[in-house]
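Can't attach files on this board, so I'm pasting raw text. These are the components:
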Amino acid sequence: MSTAKPVLTPGATIGILGSGQLGRMLVLAAARLGFKCHVFSPDPESPAADVAHRMTSADYSDTQALERFAAAIDVATYEFENVPATSATFLSKRVPVLPDPNVLATTQDRLAEKNFVAALGIPTAPFVAVSEAGELSPALAKIGRPAVLKTRRFGYDGKGQTAIGDGADPAAAWDGVGGQACILEAFVPFAREVSVVAARGQDGTVECFDVTENEHRDHILKISRVPAAMSATSAQEALRIADTIANKFGYVGVLAVELFVMRDGGLLVNEIAPRVHNSGHWTIDGASVSQFEQHVRAVAGWPLAKPVRRGRVEMINLIGSEIEDYRKWLTIPGAAVHLYGKTQVRPGRKMGHVTRVFAE
Amino acid sequence: MSTAKPVLTPGATIGILGSGQLGRMLVLAAARLGFKCHVFSPDPESPAADVAHRMTSADYSDTQALERFAAAIDVATYEFENVPATSATFLSKRVPVLPDPNVLATTQDRLAEKNFVAALGIPTAPFVAVSEAGELSPALAKIGRPAVLKTRRFGYDGKGQTAIGDGADPAAAWDGVGGQACILEAFVPFAREVSVVAARGQDGTVECFDVTENEHRDHILKISRVPAAMSATSAQEALRIADTIANKFGYVGVLAVELFVMRDGGLLVNEIAPRVHNSGHWTIDGASVSQFEQHVRAVAGWPLAKPVRRGRVEMINLIGSEIEDYRKWLTIPGAAVHLYGKTQVRPGRKMGHVTRVFAE
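---
Top answer:
Structure tokens for the assembled complex are below.
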């Protein structure tokens, strides 16, 4: 049943696994188009629950709750890629799930993801699988230093990864990531980090937003800028890569492809996020259609829109205590302020963002 | 307590009286800014209830329900001007209510509204109060034909009004509007109908959106166009009128002033809507800030934004069975489709709207 492609009518209910700010913005976009949303997550008080028509608070592995959820919705999707693939598969036997749960199985495992990308002939940083402590030394010998050891599963915002520099002790790095199955990646001296947010509709149409340049701070996205400072040829190639990946997955919905741009303009795929993405938040104010609406259109079986950018755009994340800056941002002409309704401020937590659109 | 001016912090709860599409779009704008909304209305299944954090389904005169509502919110506002002024006043003794309920008392009564406008030295169509059947003939003699008989209360979308042309029987007109207290207005041969949507903040700042030209069909707004086809001088005067009215009310929030533009460029105020307004829907996609966000900013005690229009804008209402056109609109480049989640299609019912922004 996971291959069923539903076409929703207004008033239908979209189920969303996960209830963070991505879910919140998906709910708001779905509401614009006349849909109701039912959010499923372990957190009863959460950004998406505030605006959802209904909320199921249960563990992702609670099959009884998933049964009831499936019966109450017309299609399911996710805002969070670490939903257990088994839960998504369980759901997909009862209700259409988009994108297909098979995509999760690939993107939840860095090794599977890298192999998937490499099989498409798309360059990535050199990598080697490291399944146990003993495999790290030969891997380092092959990849060279500096290198980055990354857990295969559950990494985000720099979590689950550690650099191995010239003098570093590999054993400490192995312990640092918790002694889990990893990959060892060459550290690539990239010039910039960019991403492509792409939507693929049920009819196979792919619509990409313009390539976005991303600046991180402490491994967390701080600023996105569009257009990215790169050659038109590199930008075209980045879009082609995203298009290729979306098509190969038979993807339905929005995904993001993160890439490194090398000094010579060459591109390496860093990772794939099978969901709407922080680097696409600028599209709410900076484009004629948002990544969230594109995702809703896709999972609803509706035609995608052709995004038109409204100017040069900058998106600034409000992280941790930076949330207090909202007062300043409210007074800055043209600044669009987005707050996620999170009550607890924690260091590194994404609390909101601001978008600015400038004439190009 | 109604004069208390709250300054909300993100996470606070805004209470909204009324639960139609205006409430829905207010909830969506409030959510963007990190607020929760609690909607109060007699209709449990309604456009705003779909997206609200909480919903109280009760009659507007249910004081026990209003008590509980007041205790659960930080500020109250309305999306619907026919909320009983007594209910708003009752609430205002328990929680700040913005705009002030006194405004409702004026705008709910066409006679009080006309007198309020006239007292500001702002022109309106000539009018006379008609309190009983016997007053209609002398009123007609004074105003002349054609004239329009309008009930003082509860009129919208052409309801509660009837024209009295050359051959028409005044008694039939009186019966036609239900024999209620009315005003008789001269029919003015206007060139166009326009509106100004204005926001006034707690600090007294007024920010107007550009004058909007409105085309009605069967007394229901069909198309809004911005900018309105009128001289810069007339447009400036329209903004000045809205500013004067907002200030005189000591208004907090968004209001709309509907005006007639005469052939010589002169302006007559037709009516005042003390709420966000259908003719301001274009601002969601066509301006740097929407009327809904301006209203939320105002009632939250936050600074207003300075709206910048993104181009020439057209807003088309989807009325009754026109909702079926959403499929067509979804494929039209640059068309932003908004559906209100109403399950029942009825003739004359506003089901959604479409906004198109063009380069100017």
